[in-house]
Amino acid sequence: MSTAKLNENPENTHQAVLFYLKRRKEMTVAELCQVLGITAMAVRCHLGGLQSEGLVECRLEKQQRGRPTYRYRLTTKAESLFPSAMNNLAYELLDAVFESKGHQGVIELLSLRDEALVKKLLPRLESLPLSERIAEVSKIFSENGYMTEWSQLTDGNYFIYQQHCAVHSLATQYKQLCFLESRLLERLIGCKITRQQHIMKKDPICGYLVHTGQAAECTAELSI
Fold first, then answer.
1. What range defines the domain where residue 124 resides?
2. Which of residues 169 and 105 earns the better pLDDT score?
3. What's the structural domain count of the chain?
4. Is the pLDDT of residue 51 over 60?
5. Which residues neighbour 182 within 8 Å (Cβ) at sequence distance 6 or greater?
6. Assigned domain for 185 exists
7. In sequence order, which residues have a C-beta less than 8 Å from that of residue 162 and are 6 or more positions away?
8. Among 159, 157, 193, 191, which residue's Cα sits nearest to residue 178?
9. Is residue 203 part of a domain?
């Protein structure tokens, strides 16, 4: 899989295909052959692998004469492979808030962000039965990089678990992110949530118990 960050010096042909598609936006097999200096069969082999990874897609372009041509382009998923200033920006913003207002200022800023998320997401969640709401919330977190799954327990409660922390580096410095994640889940699901496992404490996952018999009560205390 092509998981390494890409730059202008690709290490192999697989990465070079992604790099040229990033620069040219769309390319045909023939155009890729020309810039890469390899055969059409080799290009198609790389494109097939990248499509199976969900990094490349294609569209059919009709020609005035002759056969239609397939044009290949990167998917939204592939954009994460290229350098981004977003992570640095998040650090800089939180650092600036911390320097001026301390930990409470960080909490207030992140809480504003969560309020916006709740306002955006609740309309698509509030009419769903509980199990479907949990499934949808898990899907939303997975789409944001948390590799989230869920299961129903024999006692009627539910368990949500994340196999990846998408903000691990940032959360190492700002533990408020972890604290507010539990609150955000409570707001979206509508039940009391307790964290059972925590990646930041060397557990293999972040695991949350959903108490189906209890309405959400955001009374946990922040420990910095």
1. 86-215
2. 105
3. 2
4. yes
5. 193, 194, 195, 208, 220
6. yes
7. 141, 146, 147, 148, 199, 205, 206, 207
8. 193
9. yes
Looking at the fold, whether 100 and 72 belong to one and the same domain comes out as no
Containing H/E element for 86? helix 86-125
CATH number at residue 119: 3.30.1380
Q: Are strands 191-197 and 148-152 parallel, antiparallel or unpaired?
A: unpaired
Of 80, 98, 92, residue with least CA distance to 175: 98
Quick one: 97 and 180 in the same domain?
Answer: yes
Cβ-based neighbour number of residue 36 at 10 Å? 15
CA 139/CA 135 separation, integer angstroms: 6
Residues 6+ apart with CB under 8 A from 188: 118, 121, 122, 125, 133, 137, 140
Give the residue carrying structure tokens 């350098």.
83
Whether 51 and 128 share a structural domain? no
Report CA 89 to chain centroid distance, whole Å: 17
Nearest to 6 by CA among 96, 81, 107: 81
Query: How many C-beta atoms lie closer than 10 Å to residue 90's C-beta?
Result: 15
Residues 200 and 91 placed together within one structural domain of the fold: yes
pLDDT tens digits along 119-146: 999 999 989 999 999 999 999 999 888 9
Domain final position from 81, 109, 135: 81
Residue 121 CA to residue 137 CA, distance in Å, equals 9
Domain boundary pick from 81, 112, 137: 81
